[in-house]
Amino acid sequence: MRTIRDLDTVELIIKAQDLFDELRRSERTIDAGTLRALQQSGNYVVGLFDSEGDDEVMVGASIAFFGQPARRTMHSHITALLPEYRGRGWGRELKEHQRQWAFSREVGNITWTFDPLVARNAHFFLTVLGARATAYVENQYGIFGGGDAGDESDRLDVEWALADIARPPAEDAVVATVEIPSDIESLRASDPGAAHEWRLKLRADMAQQLAQGLRIAGFDAARGYLFVRA
Length: 230
Known about the structure:
- With 230 residues, the chain is an alpha+beta fold.
- Helix 1 crosses helix 2 (32-40) and helix 5 packs across helix 6.
- The strands form two sheets. It has a seven-stranded mixed beta sheet with strand order 1-2-3-4-5-7-6, with helices on both faces.
- Helices cover 33% and strands 30% of the residues.
- The longest helix is centred in the last third of the chain and has 20 residues, at 192-211.
- The protein has six helices and ten strands, in the order βααβββαβαβββααββ.
- The protein is globular, with a radius of gyration of 18 Å.
């Protein structure tokens, strides 16, 4: 059985910190003190638990905080699952819980960033959830030692309009595509140099399409990012 609930004790907060540390390995994503402060000030700090009998383990967590009051937004800092629990629909369940939590507090939009080279995230965020890409930012967080394997941290900014989920573009509206590797994470482990070349290629390809006034309207596993006229 799985449950999603607030991380409202110090013990649970520390478990979440440990979970994020395990995923990032060499880089701390967020410390327990900051998590506790976000939780106590009314932000979204939850864990996803898998239980069998009396045994319960935290297998995922999601952290988001309120944005500009006038825009009725939240920014989702991190939503993560342990690798062995991915591909079960649990990530979608966690994001849907975040969506309903935001709705109940009169929040209309959730923003976040992700590495545009990670195909599984591009598919999940743009195709499954229906979030919209709003900007491509070069090296947004500097050089990471964890998830980007020491490479520059280019990011795609997205916005999830909770009452107006985006749909894939019509086929005849797609005027350009930009491909990415199917599994950049494995490539980073086996050939960091080749992974960095993909970073530079994607950066150049994105700049070229955006400079022509096109916008990212979706993602296709076979073709990559789908561009339409703005």
